[in-house]
């Protein structure tokens, strides 16, 4: 059995714990949270030992791999510490708030000889997987234009003060909008070479963004746009459109994936599941377990995680300068 430790035993740490329980060959052996009472409740529900210091969890010999689901600005220190301790890492998105921090993580992972998987959940969500399979079959040709959006309540029950500040990696784009960006980049299957963006706090009195609109240019000539909006009151919309050379795809997390051809929309069979997020987490951990047990590459590595953060950094720069910003190193 592969022993898993959770650093960041909060709401989403609990979602991971429930998924881990369903994956053969994995066992939750330890969790970490600073609040003693909350930690006791977590371990009572999910099992394993409890630590209030994440460094102590890394000293636990039964821990083979860790999930890091802590506040964003702590990701780099914790991931580097895990790599130096010889622990494999599942790192929640965003990989880190800056590309430089991502580079430091990747260097530590390489030096430590451990595996790092960045938890970009869209790669394991059934509607997105169905769209990816359709694109790989080739009948639609290349995706040329993509629009991806997540419009949702920002002040959810698990929102914390650090989510509202720039210095701690807060804001809607790094917290939730990154899913819409990742989904678009993954399905376009091309590098982003420049970004134009507008960001701000339009609905809440906070320092970090609750709204972001991004325009993307891809190396192969494609164009994309991303909406990341955390409203005060409304209804959730979480979908995307891809316009390909020979047809269109619409991905809706609440109903599955649809194919558009000859002015008709048809549902892609098997592209919808009611509890998609839990099932995606189970697939994510299944892939991680397979990579560890059979020494395979992880599906979403640190280079990809760093690429997404590079795009977001370019978006922040574009917003500040009010100009399109090129991404260094993009082909």
Structural features, described:
It contains 9 helices and 15 strands. By secondary structure, the protein is of the alpha/beta class. The N and C termini lie far apart (42 Å).
In what order do the strands lie side by side in the largest sheet? Answer: 14-13-12-11-7-10-9-8-15
Q: Major β-sheet, in short?
A: 9 strands, mixed
User: What level of helicity do the residues show?
Assistant: 25-40%
Q: Provide the residue-averaged pLDDT.
A: 97
* Share of β-strand residues: 25-35%
* Estimated radius of gyration: 19 Å
Query: Structural class of the secondary elements?
Result: alpha/beta
Q: Uncertain segments of ≥5 residues (pLDDT<50)?
A: none
Determine the number of helices (DSSP H or I, runs of at least 4 residues): 9
List the helices and strands and how they pair.
Layout: E1 2-7, H1 11-20, E2 26-32, H2 36-46, E3 49-51, H3 54-59, E4 65-68, H4 75-84, E5 88-92, H5 99-112, E6 116-119, H6 126-137, E7 143-153, H7 172-188, E8 192-200, E9 211-218, E10 223-231, E11 237-244, E12 247-252, E13 256-261, E14 264-267, H8 276-293, H9 302-321, E15 325-326
Parallel strand pairs: 1-2, 1-4, 2-3, 4-5, 5-6, 7-10
Antiparallel strand pairs: 7-11, 8-9, 8-15, 9-10, 11-12, 12-13, 13-14
């Amino acid at each position: 059995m592969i022993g898993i430790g959770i650093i960041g035993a909060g709401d989403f740490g609990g979602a991971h714990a429930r998924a881990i329980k369903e994956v053969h060959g994995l066992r939750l052996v330890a969790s970490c949270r600073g609040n003693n009472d909350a930690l006791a409740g977590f371990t009572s529900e999910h099992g394993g030992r409890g630590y209030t210091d994440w460094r102590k969890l890394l000293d636990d010999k039964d821990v083979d791999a860790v999930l890091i689901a802590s506040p964003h600005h702590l990701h780099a220190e914790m991931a580097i510490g895990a790599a130096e301790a010889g622990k494999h890492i599942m790192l929640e998105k965003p990989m880190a708030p800056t590309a430089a921090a991502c580079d430091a993580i990747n260097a530590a992972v390489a030096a430590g000889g451990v595996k790092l998987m960045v938890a970009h959940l869209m790669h394991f969500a059934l509607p997105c997987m169905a769209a990816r399979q359709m694109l790989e079959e080739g009948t639609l040709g290349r995706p040329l234009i993509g629009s991806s959006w997540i419009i949702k309540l920002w002040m959810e029950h698990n929102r914390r003060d650090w989510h509202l500040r720039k210095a701690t990696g807060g804001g809607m784009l790094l917290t939730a909008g990154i899913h819409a960006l990742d989904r678009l980049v993954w399905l376009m299957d091309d590098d982003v070479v420049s970004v134009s963006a507008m960001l701000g706090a339009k609905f809440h009195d906070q320092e970090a963004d609750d709204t972001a609109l991004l325009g993307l240019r891809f190396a192969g000539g494609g164009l994309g746009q991303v909406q990341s909006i955390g409203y005060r009151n409304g209804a959730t919309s979480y979908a995307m459109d891809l316009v390909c050379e020979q047809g269109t795809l619409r991905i809706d997390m609440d109903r599955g994936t649809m194919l558009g051809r000859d002015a008709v929309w048809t549902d892609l069979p098997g592209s919808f599941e009611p509890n998609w997020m839990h099932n995606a987490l189970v697939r994510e951990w299944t892939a991680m377990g397979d990579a560890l047990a059979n020494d395979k590459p992880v599906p979403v590595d640190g280079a990809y995680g760093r690429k997404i953060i590079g795009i977001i950094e370019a978006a922040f720069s574009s917003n500040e300068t009010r100009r399109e910003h090129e991404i260094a190193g993009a082909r």
